[in-house]
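Extended Data, record 3-isopropylmalate dehydrogenase
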Amino acid sequence: MSNPSLLILPGDGIGPEVMAEVRKVIDWYGAKRDLAFDVSEDLVGGAAYDAHGTPLADETMAKAQEVDAVLLGAVGGPKYDVLDFSVKPERGLLRLRKEMDLYANLRPAQCFDALADFSSLKTDVVAGLDIMIVRELTSGIYFGEPRGIIEEGNERVGINTQRYTESEIDRVARSAFELAMRRDKKLCSMEKANVMESGVLWREVVTEVAKDYPEVELSHMYADAGAMQLTRWPKQFDVIVTDNLFGDLLSDLAAMLTGSLGMLPSASLGAPMSNGRPKALYEPVHGSAPDIAGQGKANPIACILSFAMALRYSFDQGDEATRLEQAVEKVLADGLRTADLLGEEGKAPVSTSEMGDAIVAALDASL
Ligand code: NAD
Ligand code: IPM
Ligand code: MN
């Protein structure tokens, strides 16, 4: 049987730096666990624009459709801010999500014990935290039409449209209920049904889907109140399901509960392929971090944990995913910290590659 295939798209800024550490982990699995991948690498974002004048070449898009999983670093950067909207680096990522139809974006926020003191919230608020945000990823205001900047009278108007069909809400709600069934059987749906019709429909459809999951305790919350509750007492939540824009905001907020944006992985999943596995793209929640790019300061853990999610969701290797997560836990417990995990403490940070090496060493020690 051929090896599972993996397309790696490092992207821009710290993307290539954190991806280099993931490559070490992938190589380790090939060498030590007899789990080799057919890895190919390509350009996305600003790097693709520089080479091809487009943030995602058609050939790269086609490759992404064929492989078992895509792993992406990050896209974007100030150099590209002046570009026309249609060729901005971020459009490359949005095209991948849309054309692969990756509608369910899983963004877990887990607080590792060793970092509980580091969160900007009190330790007892975040210690032991383990929640999962399911963000709808292929619709809503990110993609709704009409959109654009038009002339109206003597001024310009910027337009975006929030739009959800019943079937789009239904399928992401089912993903969230399925996850809740495998976790604590608690799901909170967040929208703004008090001011948005799309929110009213969202609530109705989620309530309807709930009938197929009688064991799951469903609650609804307005997304603004949800943001407040996530900082007040995040452990009240297990799985949260929400739309594309609210999910973007709430997952960055949840990242800080865990200590750093450099810690949060994500999986973007679509419908099952012929082999029964979902179409999938894995990426850290963070961006290209232009402020620290090229300095060896980036935390590679979010990207490494994204590969752990790939092991679990695309390659049926849940035990190996757990092994990798435990290796991360161990290096943190040993006190290793990249700069983002140190704050004002006087300790010397480890570099991006030192963190990657330590995680590989912890994998070795797990054998
Ligand atoms: P960002 O996530 O890149 O950075 C926010 C802050 O978090 C910065 O101070 C950064 O240094 C820090 N940070 C992020 N990841 C880190 C890591 N792994 N280790 C240590 N510190 C880390 O968000 P931004 O500054 O708002 O956006 C920068 C660019 O990235 C923009 O062009 C944006 O569009 C893009 N972006 C891309 C993605 C993606 O590719 N998925 C996600 C978010 C933002
Ligand atoms: C994310 C990012 C993206 C988004 C951008 C880069 C398109 O912020 O993955 O969270 O807004 O979805
Ligand atoms: Mn975001």
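Summary. Residues 15-32 form the longest helix (18 residues).
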